[in-house]
Design brief:
The complex is a heterodimer of chains A (266) and B (317). With 266 residues, chain A is of the alpha/beta class. Helices cover 36% and strands 25% of the residues of chain A. Classes of the chains: A alpha/beta (266), B mainly alpha (317).
């Protein structure tokens, strides 16, 4: 396990990275419907793994099984193992798993009854951090990391939903970062945003991968090509191909992948 | 998403049926307003005798002497407000607990029957509550609840005095049972309407189930508040059950064990005995006061819900 603060950016540019999350033969179900079939995938430390594929291919389900959010859906279950730093997440307390693996959702979902400040510190409050000075420091640090600080530093007491959509999404990223996770899962984080906000989020992902392991689900193939190091292509609940992003988009091994990334279907 | 209202053509409709329908519904809506104003007017006219004799001091006097024709409404106002707020105090936490259980925790096979029974409570006629209250609850309160309360919390003036059984405490408890189904079912519905994304946001931050539920309650708070107000509205006007357990004595006492009286109860008990014009006018004035208090409480509640809702959705619809 590598504490993220220690890593130098220069080092991070070299691909001699440790596996951070390892999925082994993951099958996921909603009731009797199977959403994932034997997915095995290794996500590397301090890199961005993109998951692409047409709607309903199971990419979100896979993402949500990584931080055990899949299991909160009534009637859902899964088999197989997911290891975080070699440890089975199902042997850990789900609350602790989710503290170590943060998540950003498709639609910005700040807590509407809370101020901007309280939104960012919400996860800290769950964790029992109540010291005001500490909280204020973490709030500022997280908002800076999410590139939102300069826009909201004078209005921290305003409601979280008073911000624009793009700002709300960065607020949600700051909220996820505040609990200092090691991994950040992003479920189509820019699909509800305008192009400028999308560009900001992508820049942010590029910055964040110096310290965090990022897994991003996206519909947008250009986005996957721009931000990710590895790309996994899912189709009908199966992992079709997984490789370096450059390879997936220029010389994929499978015909199905090629058809999808060149826009012939999906 | 586009707002259709802004794009609707502004041309006037020429369809006679549409015009007729619009005016007809407008008429029905106006009828409600007219009815309210007429009621208030009629009560104000009929209570003129009292108004002329006592003026505003009627509201703060605590005498009740029909023989000497000397009247004051304070004990009734006090009794109504105290018993209703006591009921709300007891019912609100219980209702939220029930609502959270039904909307978040209960498995479907348990949720449906429990919901059904909660709603069933709302359909029981109030006289049935009154009979049950008088013959079952009051003796139990007299022999078990009040002695226990006074030995544990007897240092507070609230829980002092002889355990009569009938009194403010019994009224508050019976009212709380009666308003519980309203508050619980409304709270359950608004909690169910909390977007999944809100609960997931909390859970994904590493919250426990309890913390995620608190987020949901916070999201739904204006709706829960609205439910509480509806419950309070019912408690303020509730007559039969309260009359049977409150003791019907027009006094103001710090102790919840002491008997009291409410506006609705005095109307129900005494309108048949109101033989003189003065007596009748006093009762009508009390009805007017109850009418106004109900309107004030409801308006205040609306204002509260409105402020909470507006603050929580600033810049967002």
């Amino acid at each position: 396990m590598t504490p993220h603060g220690r890593v130098e950016p220069a080092q991070a540019d070299h691909p001699a990275r440790q596996p951070r999350i390892v999925a082994e033969k993951v099958n996921a179900y909603f009731g009797t419907t199977q959403a994932l079939y034997d997915v095995s995938l290794t996500m590397l430390d301090r890199s961005v793994t993109a998951i692409i594929g047409p709607s309903g291919c199971g990419k979100s389900t896979f993402l949500r099984s990584i931080n055990r959010m899949h299991e909160i859906v009534p009637g859902s279950r899964m088999t197989g193992r997911i290891l975080l730093d070699g440890e089975d997440i199902h042997a850990m307390d789900a609350v602790l798993v989710r503290k170590r693996i943060g998540m950003v959702f498709q639609k910005p979902n700040p807590f509407p009854t809370m101020s901007i400040r309280d939104n960012v510190s919400a996860g800290l409050t769950f964790g029992g951090v109540r010291n005001r000075t500490v909280v204020a420091e973490i709030v500022e640090k997280s908002l800076r990391q999410a590139a939102l600080w300069d826009e909201v530093k004078d209005s921290l007491d305003n409601s979280g939903v008073s911000l624009s959509g793009g700002q709300q999404q960065r607020l949600c990223i700051a909220r996820a970062l505040a609990v200092s996770p090691e991994v950040l899962l992003m479920d189509e984080p820019a699909s509800a945003l305008d192009p400028i906000s999308t560009a900001k989020i992508e820049e942010l992902i590029y910055e964040l991968k110096r310290t965090y392991t990022i897994v991003i689900v996206t519909h947008n193939m250009q986005q996957a090509a721009r931000v990710s190091d590895q790309t996994a292509f899912f189709y009908m609940g199966r992992l079709v191909e997984f490789d370096d992003t450059k390879k997936i988009f220029t010389a994929p091994a499978k015909k199905q992948t090629e058809d999808y990334v060149t826009g012939r279907f999906g | 998403m586009t707002d259709n209202r802004q794009h609707r053509p502004q041309t006037r409709s020429l369809n006679i049926g549409d015009e007729l329908f619009k005016n007809l519904t407008r008429f029905f809506a106006a009828l409600i307003l007219v009815l309210v104003v007429l009621m208030a007017y009629e009560m104000a006219v009929q209570s003129r005798l009292t108004w002329n004799k006592f003026g505003l001091s009627f509201l703060v006097r605590s005498v009740w002497d029909p023989v000497q024709e000397n009247y004051g409404a304070l004990p009734f106002i006090y009794g109504t407000l105290v018993s209703s707020f006591l009921a709300l105090l007891i019912a609100l936490p219980l209702s939220i607990g029930i609502a959270v259980f039904l909307s978040e925790l209960a498995p479907p096979w348990l949720e449906r029957p429990v919901s059904f029974f909660v709603e069933l409570l709302a359909g029981i006629p109030s006289i049935v509550y009154g009979i049950w209250g008088f013959f079952v609850m009051v003796p139990w309160i007299r022999s078990a609840v009040e002695p226990a309360l006074s030995s544990a919390l007897g240092s507070l003036p609230l829980f002092r005095g002889a355990p009569y059984g009938v009194g403010m405490l019994s009224a508050g408890i019976i009212l709380s049972i009666m308003i519980l189904p309203i508050i619980a079912s409304i709270s359950r519905d608004v909690l169910r309407a909390v977007p999944r994304a809100q609960k997931e946001a909390a859970l994904a931050l590493g919250s426990t189930r309890w913390e995620a539920t608190r987020i949901a309650i916070s999201y739904a708070r204006s709706g829960i508040l609205g439910g509480a107000i509806l419950g309070l509205g019912r408690a303020l006007g509730e007559t039969m059950a309260v009359t049977m357990v409150i003791g019907n004595r027009p006094t103001i006492s710090a102790s919840l064990f002491e008997p009291g009286y409410t506006m609705a109860s005095v109307l129900a008990n005494e309108f048949t005995e109101a033989t003189s014009d003065m007596y009748l006018s006093v009762l009508i004035e009390i009805a007017l006061v109850l009418f106004i208090i109900t309107i004030v409480v409801n308006s205040f509640a609306r204002l509260l819900v409105w402020t909470v809702t507006r603050r929580s959705t600033q810049g967002h619809t």
